[in-house]
Amino acid sequence: MSPADKPWHVLRRSRVHGTGVYAARKIPAGTRIFEYQGEIISPDEADRRHPVNPDDPFHTFFFALSNDTVIDGNVNGNDSRWVNHSCEPNCETEETDDHKVYIVALEDVARGDELFFDYGLVLDERITKTVREQYRCLCGTPSCRGTMLALKRKPAQKTAVQTVAKAEKAAAKKTSRAKSEQPAQKAAKNAAKQAAKKAGQKAAKKATKQAGKKAATKVGAASRSDVSGQPGKKAAKQPGAARKLGAKKAVAGGGTKAAHSRKAV
């Protein structure tokens, strides 16, 4: 017999339950070890036949298929029916398009290791503590869920997952909003600067205009004093005052010119 023809497995007494299936040699991950064989029956017939062993009524060789039929491994079955359950299996089941089921290695299995797959048994009734105990798991692995039944995920676990997802979504939204606000904030800052600049220019323009008006008023007052005669007589009597008045006119005129220069600027 060539190595390719040698079986992958041997039957031995299991440390977990009854008879077990062990690797006869190293089994590479992904290997189809054997097909789960047996008679194909209807669900109603499976209900009629159950239990197989009155002394162990919750032990079953039934395997439900996706086309609503059942493989009864106790009739015309092979060694695959002796593969025990584990919550941390090294094998899995694979159903093909033509509804054949194979036991496939999930990982490299060393020679002498027992083969397991997760039964994931499904019941139509409510899963009570008593029912869980009836299908009690004996695998003893760290992640053992205590039963061979397929249990629904706890609401708290679902809530935790949803909470994390919601928090991640909120964080992403906040980051996106912050990025979109940066250009707006920059634009607002520039607008404030422009407004302040315009306000300063307006204030300077107003101050210059007021200074010009004040200077023009002084010049007009000085000119009227010369024409009226009364201040003129006084100035004639006091020539120094006339020279002062002329000096004031010159300064006032210069002030007006200077004011026009600032306005132009």
Automatic annotation (TrEMBL):
One of its GO terms (biological process) is methylation. Pfam families: SET. GO terms for cellular component: chromosome. Keywords: Chromosome, Methyltransferase, S-adenosyl-L-methionine, Transferase. The keyword Methyltransferase applies. Residues 168-265 are annotated as: Disordered. PROSITE patterns: POST_SET, SET. Residues 195-216 have a biased composition (Basic residues). Residues 184-194, 229-251 have a biased composition (Low complexity). Residues 133-149 form the Post-SET domain. It is found in: Chromosome. It comes from the Bacteria. Residues 7-120 form the SET domain. One of its GO terms (molecular function) is methyltransferase activity. The keyword Transferase applies. This is SET domain-containing protein. It comes from Verticiella sediminum.
